[in-house]
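Schema walkthrough. Field components (list of strings):
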Amino acid sequence: MTMTQIVYERSKGLQDVETHYCPGCHHGIIHKLIAETLSEMNLLDIAVGICPVGCAVLAGNYINCDFVEAAHGRAPAVATGIKRTRPNLLVFTYQGDGDLASIGAGEIVHASMRGEKFTTIFINNAIYGMTGGQMAPTTMVGQKATTAQSGRDPRMHGNPIRMAEMLSTLGGMAYCERVCVADIPNLNRARRALKKAFTLQLQGIGHTFLEFLSTCPTNWGMSPVDAGKWLKSSMALYYQLGVIKDITAKEESK
Amino acid sequence: MKKELWKGNEAIAEAAIRAGCRAYFGYPITPQNEIPEYMSKYMPEAGGVFVQAESELAAINMVYGAAATGIRAMTSSSSPGISLKQEGISYLLASNLPAVIVNMMRGGPGLGTIQPSQADYFQATRSPGHGDGHMIVLAPNSIQEAVDLVWNAFELADKYLTPVMLLADGMIGQMMEPIVWKRSQPATEVDKPWAAAGREGDGKTHFVTSLRLQSAQNEQFVYALEKRYAIIERDEVRYEASGCEGADLIIAAFGTTARIAASAARRLEAEGIKAGIFRPITLWPFPYDALRRLADQNSVKAVLTVEMSLGQMHQDVRLAIEGSKPTPFYGRTGGMVPEPKAIAQKAAEVLREVK
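Field assembly_structure (string):
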């Protein structure tokens, strides 16, 4: 007689479908992390995600909770409309760098300023993915893009924008951390950060914001392995990982 | 019923609260500022949500979020702000979401002026955003009618899962008139099983989206919209025709301009000319058939359109008349208001020309 024991199974937070993401893209890993966290925290029934325009536009087909699709950059405004009218829901926006740091820069700044009680999951892969590799506000200096074919030049394009640092100056921002899922230690840090962000949201203390450094092997022109390495060797130097703001930590140290 | 004196913008805001609106998102722009101001005080008192958004874009997207969870939501603005809201209006109609948008029109184009205008007719009645789509457009000519139509606006939005615009002008927004509160109950509620308010209620996952990546699927959606629009065009046309039976001339005008045209008609009556007033209340759907029937009377020599624009509803009037009668136009634009005397002169001149 053989005994079988389930040691691993698909999270209840994930729908039983294949994603459309490219090999080596971190969207899938981050989706899974969100799905597992919602499931573990027993939040799937009260969660509403807002998906962006861009590669994650179909996130609502992958994560097993309610979703609302927003116009490009408007997710924080849509989330404001949801969370203000349904304060008992767990609300999160899922936004890429073109969405959040470019076309939606106004919406994220003001939602954060107001201290809107939802969580933003910001996927920074330093490029426009869905539209085919155009320069993003977060594109690294020297990094090539289809609209910056000689690489980003600060004299023409300015320097990459650090959204997490910028938003952390706002009074409404309660918790802001930059993470990545490029290796297991970082993945575990990201998991803890996500759990903390959702927990603080439920406590209603303000805007919670997680910036995930992510990859785009297709538009970076790299293999998945090289993309993961470049994320850590280049992106993470400019966009430093770690907690940028945590008002609960301040309270503890007083 | 007891009459009360109300300013247009404040009356509309109060009507929305009484009609069961529980979320208002706005942004300052003249001449509609009394709506967000009123809402900021009285919406929270009614247990609802007020947010002063960072822009019109954000405001309409907050409406989108609230509506997606099944909340009765509204925003208001004036012409330049409505241009910004067009993005959200397109997404609302493409996501089958009910919402009410108030436009207190001012003189454009561009920043223009803050005086009344009706030059957003095309913007409201053709496709109100990108893509194939419509919204129901209600055009009151008094504060009483504006208040009454607020209830209809929320009911139509829920019934047809569509954005509805209350299209008035700075005159309606800024003046005071006596009104009575005819309805004591909120607008009729409908079930919203599609609402993305968590799986908790029905155990189902809801996804509110306007993305239909397969073109064939998107085409089917637009065809479904078209079918719904055909029902709206059949069942929801509203207009008022006064003195049109046996008239020598019909003046077609909406909103404030229709009131001024009525003054012109009284002047004409003194001159022995019988001028009827045809006033569409729904600008979309436009009352083509009703206007055509009245214009087809032998007595009617012409249909004169009067607007505070260069002639936008004029196109719909011509589509209704289809060349069977002369369809002249008179209008003032850019924030200028036509005078009864000028309308009467134009009408008399038209009749001299066609006789």
